[in-house]
């Protein structure tokens, strides 16, 4: 489904809420712009004046270290004023309270909200609520979407393996609870990846996952064979209700990424993980820290990708009709 | 409407600019071209002057003063200054000097890489329409154009100047 909330009348990205339905060119623009921001992070003064005078609020209703920190660094490297708000979440949080928080922060002339929330659809709700000059970036909503993570994942893959047409990617582990997996599958499909596989136990695969455009494997010995990229997912213990797994030890035995399993993939395979990693649960330390791992590179790339998304959305502000650029 | 202009012999103009730049060579200058046209001109000057250190390139998209009006340039290139510019003499090269805003942005970006000893500006074409107190030390060719005329360098090979006329 195309999400018109994200694009303005000229097809430009105003909010980034989900990857689903975005045009291929929009994704390419983000990746190409991020490539230019990489060099900013490598020089003496890691700052450009692009968002000088803009106010960015990182609004996190759910805990995060990596995503919040990289969004904060990204905003600061763009010269924006960045405010971090960790909003304590109670089980009774209702839509109204979220929108009240937004209204108050917007009254302080916030230009961009980076929102993480445990409920799917929270970022959409806020995007529908705010006036046209305010932008929303979804930093993870429930099990639904984590579009900036997906973009930094495909960015990292593209830097190593630029031809996506023959690319085989295996996403392994807790697909059911993973907003990262959903967004990544959409991004890879839009960019024309050769084959996307999801590998995991039946209990951790969502029903009809094939309809997203992925091949299902229950056995990692088959799912990992000859792949170019392995994306390991974190076992999301905090989102699990009921006994979906016998034990973490058994999960590691059946699905954990060990050197032996990794040997089934292509010799130049990339090992990725959105973090935080559970060593010895979904991935062996020797693999996480090994030569095929690009896990820390993903973190570094996350800054440039988030700089690109922040500057693109903030640049596409509502302009009075008829005004020429 | 656009027309190719043959009032400027580009190869001869760049050769003339190289001659004008020769007195700077004892300072062991670093050359930096501004994307995209400035890089094409700088590549030729770099070769003619037989500079040994690699050419730097600058994309000033992140330093423009019109971001709030036009947003991010989707074709932004990567700035690459392969040599440390601290205390170095810099020759900054662009294709057309008009308002001076590109050079203002370029200078700001250069200073985010370090503190050069000096910067001189060399441009292929100097036209009217200045909006900032910025002038080039080396000018290949001076040109007066009508207000609605826009001149653009096409390249990289061959280099070609085109005058475009905006109809109001």
What portion of the residues of chain B fall into strands of 2 or more residues?
25-35%
Total separate domains of chain A = 2
Mean pLDDT of chain B: 93
User: Ends of chain B: how far apart?
Assistant: 12 Å
Class from helix and strand fractions of chain B: alpha/beta
Shape of chain A: globular
- Mean pLDDT score of chain A, rounded? 91
Largest sheet of chain A: 5 strands, parallel
Amount of helix of chain A:
25-40%
Which residue ranges of chain A are poorly predicted, with pLDDT under 50 across at least 5 consecutive positions?
320-325
Q: Which regions of chain B have little confidence, pLDDT < 50, spanning 5+ residues?
A: none
Number of strands of chain A: 9
| Widest sheet, order of strands of chain B | 3-2-4-5-6
Secondary-structure element string of chain A: HEHEHEHEHEHEEHEHHEHH
Number of strands of chain B: 8
The CATH topology of chain B is what? Rossmann fold
Q: Spatial order of the strands in the main sheet of chain A?
A: 7-6-5-8-9
Shape of chain B: globular
Quick synopsis:
By secondary structure, chain A is α/β, with parallel strands linked by helices. Chain A has helices spanning 24-41, 66-77, 95-106, 122-129, 147-160, 179-190, 220-223, 248-255, 259-262, 285-288, 295-315, and strands at residues 55-60, 81-86, 112-117, 135-141, 168-172, 195-199, 215-217, 229-232, 270-272.
Describe what you observe in this structure.
The complex is a heterodimer of chains A (325) and B (168). Chain A has eleven helices and nine strands. Chain A has helices at residues 24-41, 66-77, 95-106, 122-129, 147-160, 179-190, 220-223, 248-255, 259-262, 285-288, 295-315; strands spanning 55-60, 81-86, 112-117, 135-141, 168-172, 195-199, 215-217, 229-232, 270-272. Chain A is globular and about 55 Å long. Chain A starts with 23 loop residues before the first helix and ends in a 10-residue tail after the last helix. Chain A has a five-stranded parallel sheet. In chain A, strands 2-1-3-4 form a four-stranded parallel sheet, sandwiched between helices. Chain A folds into two domains: 24-144 and 300-315, Rossmann fold, CATH 3.40.50.1370; 147-294, Rossmann fold. Chain B is α/β, with parallel strands linked by helices. Chain B has a single domain (9-65, 76-148), classed as Rossmann fold. Chain B contains four helices and eight strands. Chain B has helices spanning 10-21, 37-48, 67-70, 101-113, and strands at 2-4, 30-34, 56-58, 89-97, 118-127, 138-143, 149-154, 160-165. In chain B, the strands form two sheets. In chain B, strands 3-2-4-5-6 form a five-stranded parallel sheet. In chain B, strands 1-8-7 form a three-stranded antiparallel sheet, with no helix packed on it. The longest helix of chain B is centred in the middle third of the chain and has 13 residues, at 101-113. Chain B is globular. The chains are: A alpha/beta (325), B alpha/beta (168). Chain A binds chain B through residues 12, 29, 32-33, 35-40, 43-45, 47-51, 308, 311-312, 314-317, 319, 325, and chain B through 59, 61-63, 67-72, 74-81, 108-109, 112-114.
